Amino acid sequence: MAQALVLGRRTSGPGVLPGFGLSIGFTLVYLSLIVLIPLGALALKAAGLGVDGLLKIAFDARVLAALKISFGVAFAAALINAIFGVLVAWVLVRYDFPGRALVDAAVDLPFALPTAVAGIALAALYAGNGWVGALLEPYGIKVAYTPLGIMVALVFVGLPFVVRTVQPLMQELDREIEEASATLGASRLQTITRVLLPPLLPAVLTGFALAFARGVGEYGSVIFIAGNMPYVSEIAPLLIVIKLEEFDYRGATGIALIMLLVSFAMLLVINLIQAWSRKRYGHV
């Protein structure tokens, strides 16, 4: 017993891993070169603006409109993916139907497809003379070259993050839990909301955060379908590119820093909610 306890204590420490010092050193160096140093350089460059200069950029009407579109539409698209991504994962896990493997592979298509190709395809499909756009336009619904088109593009690129995050946990859910719930008199809605969804909530939040982060920084698939009209359908990443093309490096870094701070704050809140859900519902 004592030996088992000693072994348990040893395995809980990092020293049992061979090459731990080298591994952690490589990890820190790699993260510094790829993440910390570039972000630090961005913050240092933007610091030259001062607080007043940064606030002036942040409250510029065009910048505010672009930030509102980028973060608002990305949040809405991630929310849509969190709902329908769970449904897609459920169908892939719980049902066996002809073409299931093809549908499962199609979920990963946004990962492999170049974003510019996706943007051109969506713009052609949802334009006024496109297959889908022509059907919607008589009802006054215009998708291409509007914020709605941006949402369509972000839903397209963000769906795999939710599906692939939730799908493994769904595969581990025991169907006997559903049968036991039904035996105890629970309705289907009660089984879904009280038995199935709580264990999946941390994974859903993770997929939501990944889809949201991807949507905020998405550029290639959006610019072709957005229309890029200032104050209407111009996203913040495009505004940064415009500033760079105008050699306004300080303005570009200022907008980039604002996006970084807002993204960090929103992801922090999402991670706190995720940690609470894990503590409350645990892991499957």
TrEMBL record:
InterPro entries the record matches: CysT_permease, MetI-like, MetI-like_sf, Sulph_transpt2
PROSITE patterns reported for this sequence: ABC_TM1 (PS50928)
Membrane topology according to the record: Multi-pass membrane protein
GO cellular component, one term: plasma membrane
Domain named ABC transmembrane type-1: residues: 67-270
Record's keyword annotation contains Magnesium: no
Subunit organization: The complex is composed of two ATP-binding proteins (CysA), two transmembrane proteins (CysT and CysW) and a solute-binding protein (CysP).
Protein name (record): Sulfate transport system permease protein CysT
